[in-house]
Design brief:
The chain is mostly helical. Helices cover 96% and strands 0% of the residues. The protein is built from two helices and no strands. It has helices spanning 2-133, 138-152. Helix 1 packs antiparallel against helix 2.
C-alpha cells in the first residue's frame, strides 16, 4: 500500500509539475533558444554589414587615391604648360630687347657716321683752305697734311 501511495503521489507530483512547473521552464528554454538564434542572426547580419562597409571603405579609398593621382597629374601637366608659356614669353621678351638694342646701336652708328662725315667735311674744307692760302711748296703742303692728320688723332 505504501507503494501504491508512493506511485499515486509521484503521479500527482509529475502531473502538477507538467501542469504548472514545466511549462514556464519549457517556455523559458524556448525563449532563451529563440533569443540565442535571434542574436546569432543579428551577429551574422552585423558581420555582413561590416564586411560590406569594409569593402565600400576600400573602394572609396581606392577612388580617392585615383582621384588624387589624377589631380596631381593634372597639376603637373598644368605646371608644365605654364612653364612652357613663361619660357616662350621670356624668349619673346628677350628677343624684343635684343632687337631694340640692335636698332638703337644701328641708330647710334648712323648718327656717329653722320657726325664723322660732318667732321671730315669740315676738316677737308679747313685743309683745302690752308692748302689754297699757303700753296707755297710741296714740302709745306706735306707738313700741313701731317699736321691735320695729327689733329684728327
Amino acid at each position: 500500500m505504501t507503494f501504491l501511495v508512493q506511485i499515486i503521489a509521484f503521479t500527482l507530483f509529475v502531473l502538477i509539475c507538467m501542469k504548472w512547473i514545466w511549462p514556464p521552464i519549457i517556455n523559458a528554454l524556448n525563449e532563451r533558444q529563440k533569443n540565442v538564434l535571434d542574436s546569432y542572426e543579428k551577429i551574422k547580419e552585423a558581420d555582413q554589414k561590416l564586411e560590406l562597409a569594409n569593402n565600400e571603405a576600400a573602394q572609396i579609398k581606392n577612388e580617392a587615391l585615383v582621384k588624387a593621382q589624377e589631380t596631381i597629374s593634372s597639376a603637373l601637366k598644368q605646371k608644365s604648360i605654364i612653364m612652357e608659356q613663361a619660357t616662350e614669353e621670356a624668349k619673346s621678351t628677350k628677343q624684343k630687347i635684343i632687337d631694340s638694342a640692335k636698332a638703337e646701336i644701328e641708330s647710334e652708328k648712323i648718327k656717329a657716321k653722320e657726325a664723322l662725315k660732318k667732321d671730315i667735311a669740315s676738316l677737308v674744307l679747313l685743309t683745302s683752305e690752308k692748302f689754297i692760302s699757303n700753296n707755297v711748296n710741296t714740302q709745306k703742303n706735306k707738313n700741313l697734311v701731317d699736321e691735320m692728320l695729327d689733329d684728327m688723332k
